[in-house]
Amino acid sequence: MRERVTGRFALAIFLAALALVALAPTDALAHDVTTGDRGYIQTILGVHLIPFAYLGAKHMVTGYDHLLFLLGVIFFLYRLRDIGLYVTLFAVGHSTTLLIGVIMGVGVNSHLVDAIIGLSVVYKALDNLGVYTRWFGFQPNTKAATLIFGLFHGLGLATKIIDFEMASDGMIPNLVAFNVGVEIGQLLALSAILVVMTHWRQTRRFLQQAVVANVAVAAAGIALIAIQLAGYFGEST
User: What residue numbers bound the domain in which 94 lies?
Assistant: First the structure.
């Protein structure tokens, strides 16, 4: 009975989180920054490491797309060593395009890059469901995919920050602090996820419920793609 309750509780958390994604404002679905934080970034001058580290942590903890993708990545990873490897690959990709993108002013249309980020969520959910080997007879390189999609996640945020016209005074130290904050937020979010996952995996119905959960994650990713493409074509008209 306890296992059944634990499994249902974990699945309920997944579905509730996905419902929040569906009900959230469009701008909150991806790499958005609140009005107050945007004003701070636009007006600040000099080096402010702690505030930018806080903003980085806040971005990760509240970033639905980040969390959905990382959730998919660690869903069937049981060893901390493997979790650390994949999370590091994602962090390297994310940090690289964020720093290079902002410093060199390399940005793309935010709707298009966020649609690709939604695609990363769909990709990982389908991977967890075994779709590629079952339907197409091959297994994509999961490490390479995690790194590549990490690059897109960082590019998405870089595009937002470029739009804010961040001051050059203290830019590099502040961006590094922001990245450190992202890693802190990532660890906090993953710790909470792993607590739930650890108990859930011990239940007998985990594999059955995992199918439902990953189908729901894929559906959420498809919704993210549709919303971002609608925004892109809406701008074009």
Answer: 2-236
The rounded percent of the chain whose pLDDT value lies above 70 is 81
* pLDDT higher than 90, residue 121: yes
DSSP string, the chain: -HHHHHHHHHHHHHHHHHHHHHHS-GGGGSS---HHHHHHHHH--S--HHHHHHHHHHHHHH-HHHHHHHHHHHTT--SHHHHHHHHHHHHHHHHHHHHHHHHHT----HHHHHHHHHHHHHHHHHHHTTHIIIIIS----HHHHHHHHHHHHHHHHHHHHHHTT--STTHHHHHHHHHHHHHHHHHHHHHHHHHHHHHHHTSTTHHHHHHHHHHHHHHHHHHHHHHHHHHHHHHH-
pLDDT of residue 186 exceeding 70, the answer is: yes
Count of domains observed in the chain = 1
Closest CA to 158 of 104, 227, 119, 201: 104
pLDDT over 50 (residue 28): no
Q: Give the closest residue to 75 by CA, choosing from 208, 198, 188.
A: 198
Which tens digits make up the pLDDT trace of 87-102?
899 989 988 998 898 8
